[in-house]
Design brief:
Layout lengths: L5 E10 L2 E11 L4 E5 L6 H9 L6 E6 L6 E4 L11 H9 L8 H10 L15 H13 L5 E5 L7 H14 L4 E6 L2 H7 L2 E6 L2 E7 L10 H9 L6
Helix pairs in contact: 2-3, 2-4
């Protein structure tokens, strides 16, 4: 078996008496797209920020099969200096990693995320959806091996979602992708496997097809897991 790109064992994060992440486990191999599904406040963003190194864990073990510089996180709401253009921002994002990335590649990734008509506009006028597209461009321009996407489609219209999911599908040729979302159809579209979490606890981890018993749709199976159980 190949060494995993990411392996997490018993990850826990506590804030005083609040347990945000409770014994999270995950193993991702090269070329996998894995979905992290759950309601708001389930702990998804906390998990991604810990994996990326932006937040400290309380306990647990995280092992990487790639160098830290090959890991990139796209936050839910990317923020940029408003006086810069989209081209300048993506150009800055590539420079610390691969100086041999050409200007043509910068233009291509901006075109791929649907911002070619805004490439030389200052981002202070960008909508949240445009900033999400630009955030994806800055995340993938350095060709990272492990890509963490936090709600990458939350502010996008149907065309934008389609474009981003198409990019995610293509990324697994050379990268491993872990992305959080509450849009269940997106998981069905691009994910090989999924973890369903609520209140920091894992309710299911496995293949997308495996969550259903063959009688339920993926969406129904996830909702059944997340719906509070009625007391008898």
């Amino acid at each position: 078996m190949d060494d995993p790109i990411l392996e997490i064992s018993n990850l826990t994060k506590k804030y005083d008496n609040l347990v945000a992440v409770d014994g999270f486990n995950l193993r991702l191999n090269q070329g996998t797209v894995h979905g992290l599904v759950g309601p708001n406040g389930a702990g998804k963003s906390t998990m991604l920020s810990i994996i990326s190194g932006l937040r400290r864990k309380t306990s647990g073990i995280i092992n990487f099969g790639v160098a830290q510089k090959e890991i990139m996180l796209m936050p839910d709401t990317p923020e940029f200096f408003g006086f810069l253009t989209a081209r300048q921002i993506v150009d800055l994002a590539r420079s610390p990693f691969l100086l041999n990335i050409s200007e043509e590649q910068v233009e291509k990734v901006i075109d791929d995320v649907g911002l070619s008509n805004s490439i030389d506009l200052k981002v202070k006028g960008f909508s949240r959806g445009m900033k999400q597209r630009l955030g994806l461009a800055t995340t993938i321009i350095s060709q990272p091996k492990l890509i963490l996407l936090d709600e990458p489609c939350s502010a996008l219209d149907p065309i934008g979602r389609h474009d981003v999911l198409e990019i995610v599908s293509e990324l697994k040729q050379n990268s491993t992708v872990l992305f959080s979302t509450h849009i269940l159809s997106d998981v069905e579209t691009v994910c090989d496997s999924v973890t369903v979490v609520d209140h920091g606890k894992t309710l299911y981890e496995g293949t997308v097809l495996g969550i259903s018993d063959g009688k339920k749709s993926f969406e129904d199976a996830v909702i059944e897991l997340l719906r509070p159980k009625k007391e008898l």
